[in-house]
Amino acid sequence: MFRSLLTPRWLLLHVLFVVATVATGFLAVWQWDRAHEAGGSFQNLGYALQWPLFGVFTIFLWIRLMRMDVHRHEDETEPETTAGTVSGDAVAAQVSDEPTTPARRTRPLVPPPAPPVDAEDDPELAAYNQYLAELNAKDQRAS
User: Fold this and answer.
1) Which residues contact 134 (CB under 8 A, 6 or more apart)?
2) How many CA atoms lie within 13 A of 131 on its CB side?
3) DSSP letter, residue 4
4) 11-16 contacts: CB < 8 A, separation 24 or more?
5) Could you give the residue ranges of the DSSP H alpha helices within the chain?
6) How far apart are CA 5 and CA 12, in angstroms?
7) For the segment 74-122, what is each residue's pLDDT rounded down to a tens digit?
8) What is the mean pLDDT of residues 18-29?
9) What are phi and psi of 112, to 5 degrees?
10) 41: left (phi over 0), alpha (psi -120 to 50) or beta
C-alpha cells in the first residue's frame, strides 16, 4: 500500500516537498526581518504573512498527491467487476444455494447517456441536439 511512496520518483518528490516547505519558512522569516528594518514596508510584512500560507499549501498538495497515488494503486490491485456482471465465485455460490454477499460494484468511468429529448418536451433543447447531431455527421463525413 505505502510501498508505492518509496519508489525513486516519490523519494525525489518527498525531498522536493520538504525543501519547498523549509524554503517557504526561511522566506517568511527573511521577509519578517526585512519588514522590521529601516527600509521595510507593509509589502514586506504582507509577504511575511503570505509565505507560511504557501508552505501550508505545499504540505496540502504533498498529502493530496500521496493519497491519490495510494488510492490509484489500491484500485489497480482490486479485482475489477463491472456493474451487471457477477464473479465466478458468486455464480458458484448461487448454484449451490449458499448465502453470499453481493459482488462489489465499481463506479462507471463514463456516465450513462441521458434519455433523448422530444421536441414536445423541450423544443429548444431538441433543436440544439439536432444541430449537434448534424455537426457530428458532417465531421464523420469529413474524416
Assistant:
1) none
2) 6
3) G
4) 13/62, 13/65, 14/62
5) 8-35, 42-77, 88-95, 123-142
6) 10
7) 777 766 555 455 555 544 445 555 555 555 666 668 878 878 778 888 8
8) 96
9) -65, 155
10) beta
